[in-house]
């Protein structure tokens, strides 16, 4: 029986270099991808990690050996790959990236034709089986490598520009933290397009140059220890807003003009409102962890909120099934119907800048009322070895008094004036807790303390 490849996960490929993933394994994955999808044309991109160029080269060689025309993006974000697959009518796409994982990791994100997710039930299992068997035979004829980086980026930027009305923008000074990841060059192309339209936006760039050694740390702005660099730059520059990206920039994080980090669920609410002002009655997809603010905004604006399980494959499927205009997760993933039903880290900040222009309000004011109406805890992670037993203990404590229950993704209990979601990580020995309340921060803090004590007592 062929040896199993541990780098295959439910919806992507990731693993430790030299142990789970190397150039030889990447070649097998590339050939398996081409065979499983019967692909003739495949888009290939990569992030800035030191190992990504070698792995991408191995994938390209493998695809060529399968007779595939490889449309090479070079250094690009995952969303640029998503867009290019549909734009160029490719049979699939691969982005070599480990995003915000540790330095000694890398991986791949993959899609099928139409930029649809490639998961275990939709083709990834077949890729894995072929890669593990490693029985491909001699190379096929007809394969070639085509550099489409310039053409693809120009088309991608044009699509992004279609999301905003530059005439609605007002003068803003924006701090941009690319985290030394892949975002810098792409951001510059977007900034050039805005300048060509005389958009009154000025940018202060920090940690901008792509550098696979990540001299300023792994680009993951969701970690609190990574947030001060952007926050301090916003305050020092007296900027109107700060934005920060992860390694492959499919997530965008916001800081208001005071340097305060804006939790993701409030950005979901802002974007939902923006789309509903353009498309009344539209459907908006959200994840189940923190829901009250989003649902209140969507329903008040006449929209239809639709809950999906957490995770990009589930959000994208829900977006397609319901033809929803937008979907958002509190973890800073934002999905757009008119961006091939995929997530983008660049579209959100453009829309928020336009919203600030239209309302004349600073970002802090745009979210202040929502923070007060629906305070939330942010995601709190607990390292545990017995997640199921702890969840059972929490359920026994709170479920008898709950007025509503939802088991779509972990345990969600509505306690009337407050609500929580407790779910296990799919990849780590962690329990993830989110708590929200209706207009009562003190109540929120008390319940967070109560839940935390219960979880830690059983850890």
TrEMBL record:
GO molecular function ontology, one term from the record: magnesium ion binding
UniProt keyword Cell membrane, yes or no: no
Cited Pfam families: PGM_PMM_I (PF02878), PGM_PMM_II (PF02879), PGM_PMM_III (PF02880), PGM_PMM_IV (PF00408)
Cofactor(s) demanded: Mg(2+)
Coiled-coil portions: none
Keywords: Isomerase, Magnesium, Metal-binding, Phosphoprotein
InterPro entries from the UniProt entry: A-D-PHexomutase_a/b/a-I, A-D-PHexomutase_a/b/a-I/II/III, A-D-PHexomutase_a/b/a-II, A-D-PHexomutase_a/b/a-III, A-D-PHexomutase_C, A-D-PHexomutase_C_sf, A-D-PHexomutase_CS, Alpha-D-phosphohexomutase_SF
CDD domains: PMM_PGM
Start and end residues of each Alpha-D-phosphohexomutase alpha/beta/alpha domain: 8-134, 155-259, 263-370
Ranges where the Alpha-D-phosphohexomutase C-terminal domain occurs: 379-451
A GO BP entry: carbohydrate metabolic process
SUPFAM superfamilies per UniProt: Phosphoglucomutase, C-terminal domain, Phosphoglucomutase, first 3 domains
Family, as annotated: Belongs to the phosphohexose mutase family.
Protein name: Phosphomannomutase
Protein's organism: Paracoccus aurantiacus
Lineage, broadest ranks: Bacteria, Pseudomonadati, Pseudomonadota, Alphaproteobacteria, Rhodobacterales
């Amino acid at each position: 029986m062929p040896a199993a490849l541990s780098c295959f996960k439910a919806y992507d490929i990731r693993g430790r270099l030299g142990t789970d993933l190397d150039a030889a394994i990447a070649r097998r994955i590339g050939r398996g991808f081409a065979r499983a999808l019967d692909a003739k044309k495949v888009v290939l991109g990569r992030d800035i990690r030191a190992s990504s160029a070698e792995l991408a080269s191995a994938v390209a060689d493998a695809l060529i050996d399968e007779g595939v025309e490889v449309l090479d993006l070079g250094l690009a974000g995952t969303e640029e790959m998503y867009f290019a697959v549909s734009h160029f009518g490719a049979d699939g796409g691969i982005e070599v990236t480990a995003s915000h994982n540790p330095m000694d990791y890398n991986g791949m994100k993959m899609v099928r034709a139409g930029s649809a997710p490639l998961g275990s039930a939709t083709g990834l299992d077949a890729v894995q089986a072929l890669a593990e068997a490693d029985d491909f035979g001699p190379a096929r004829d007809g394969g070639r490598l085509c550099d489409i980086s310039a053409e693809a980026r120009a088309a991608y930027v044009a699509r992004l520009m279609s999301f905003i009305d530059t005439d609605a923008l007002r003068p803003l000074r924006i701090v941009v933290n690319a985290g030394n990841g892949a975002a810098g060059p792409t951001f510059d192309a977007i900034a050039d397009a805005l300048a060509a339209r005389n958009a009154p936006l000025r940018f202060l760039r920090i940690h901008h140059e792509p550098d696979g050694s990540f001299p300023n740390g792994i680009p993951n702005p969701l970690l609190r220890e990574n947030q001060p660099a952007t926050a301090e730059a916003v305050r020092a520059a007296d900027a109107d807003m700060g934005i920060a990206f992860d390694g492959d920039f499919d997530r965008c994080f916001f800081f208001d003009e005071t340097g305060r980090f804006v939790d993701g669920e409030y950005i979901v609410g802002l974007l939902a409102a923006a789309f509903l002002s353009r498309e009344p009655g539209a459907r908006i997809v959200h994840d189940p962890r923190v829901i009250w603010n989003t649902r209140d905004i969507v329903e008040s604006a006449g929209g239809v909120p639709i809950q999906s399980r957490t995770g990009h494959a589930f959000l994208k499927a829900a977006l397609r099934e319901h033809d929803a205009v937008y979907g958002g997760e509190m973890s800073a993933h934002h999905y757009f119907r008119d961006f091939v039903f995929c997530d983008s880290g660049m579209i959100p900040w453009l829309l928020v800048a336009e919203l600030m222009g239209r309302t004349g309000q600073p970002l802090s004011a745009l979210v202040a009322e929502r923070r007060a109406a629906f305070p939330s805890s942010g995601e709190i992670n607990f390292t545990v070895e017995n997640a199921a037993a702890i969840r059972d203990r929490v359920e026994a404590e709170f479920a008898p008094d709950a007025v509503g229950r939802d088991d779509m993704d972990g345990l969600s209990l509505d306690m009337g004036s407050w609500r929580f979601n407790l779910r296990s990580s799919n990849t780590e020995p962690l329990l993830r807790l989110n708590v929200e309340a209706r207009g009562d921060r003190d109540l929120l803090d008390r319940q967070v303390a109560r839940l935390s004590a219960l979880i830690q007592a059983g850890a």
